[in-house]
Design goal:
disordered C terminus; six-stranded antiparallel barrel; six-stranded antiparallel beta barrel
Length: 299
């Protein structure tokens, strides 16, 4: 028993000495690192050329290792990107296939309706309208403001443009020619306060007047009592008044509240770059304008 006690005392003493030695070594190691860092800082301040050479040597030595280590990471990143792109392409391909199928169905229906329409026209001895002439012009200035919505286009009388002609884009109706110069025209937009366009709600064939009020959303006025409009309904020209032919797309119903029906035009003013000035052979605006001017002169 005494021998065991002596052994335990010796073991405890050795453990204590070992721990004490490790603590001293840690303290001196930490102090050594601090001194080494301080020495490097002083050396860097004292001799910049030497430090730059050391840094360059370290960078040159480490660069190949970093390059080798970065290759698997870069390859993995490219693999992940390619897998992501392939997944997106697969989804887009499926969507395009479905869309293409719908378009083929619509194409078949359109061909059938076109053939039926031609057949009915031949039975009715229908005389088709003459193809309208047109001039394509670039929008060269937006002269609109808070009180006027109009633009200038690079076409004029020398191109055969006359007052009252319709102005359209591939999206829909823009407005009408308001004033004609030799090489430029002023176009009154459908959002202008002075613009009035006879239209119909395509789904219900309800007639109305599209009235501009110098805002981006013109409104429908003179709706028949009890007539309703729903958000998303297409608005097209009615052809009444002899100003525009029927069927030109104008916009969609964007808001219905408190008896006000606001329309979002297909042709956005801020996106107009090229416009088409179309001669449909209609003189409704000119005739009414001439009549008004004649009445003023008579008075």
């Amino acid at each position: 028993m005494g021998v065991a006690y002596v052994k335990n005392r010796k073991h405890s003493s050795l453990s204590g000495l070992t721990q004490h030695g490790m603590g001293v070594a840690n303290r001196f190691g930490y102090l050594g690192l601090v001194l080494a860092s301080f020495a490097l800082m002083m050396l860097g301040k004292a001799d910049l050329t030497v430090m730059e050479r050391v840094r360059a040597s370290v960078s040159d030595s480490v660069a190949p290792v970093l390059e080798v280590l970065s290759r698997p990471v870069a390859s993995l990143d490219r693999l992940v990107d390619e897998l992501t792109v392939m997944g997106e392409l697969r989804a887009e391909n499926a969507r395009l296939r479905e869309e293409n199928q719908h378009l083929l169905e619509w194409q078949s229906a359109a061909r059938k309706l076109s053939a039926e329409n031609q057949n009915l026209k031949s039975q009715l001895n229908f005389a088709p309208d003459a193809e309208p002439g047109f001039v394509t012009a670039r929008v060269i200035a937006d002269t609109g403001g808070a009180f006027v919505h109009s633009i200038l286009a690079s076409a004029g009388a020398h191109n055969g443009v006359t007052k009252g002609q319709a102005v359209v884009t591939g999206d829909g109706l823009v407005g009408r020619v308001h004033a004609v110069g030799t090489r430029s025209v002023r176009i009154l937009l459908i959002t202008d306060l002075n613009s009035r366009v006879p239209v119909v709600i395509e789904a219900t064939r309800t007639r109305a007047i599209l009235a501009g009020d110098n805002n981006e959303r013109p409104r429908l006025i003179h709706l028949l009592p009890g007539a309703t409009a729903s958000i998303g309904d297409r608005i097209v020209t009615s052809g009444h008044g002899g100003a525009f032919p029927p069927g030109i797309p104008v916009g969609v119903v964007a808001q219905v509240s408190d008896g006000n029906v606001l329309i979002k035009p297909y042709a956005q003013r801020e996106r107009l770059e090229f416009v088409r000035i179309v001669d449909y052979g209609l003189k409704g605006i000119l005739d009414s304008t001439s009549a008004a001017e004649g009445a003023g002169v008579t008075q």
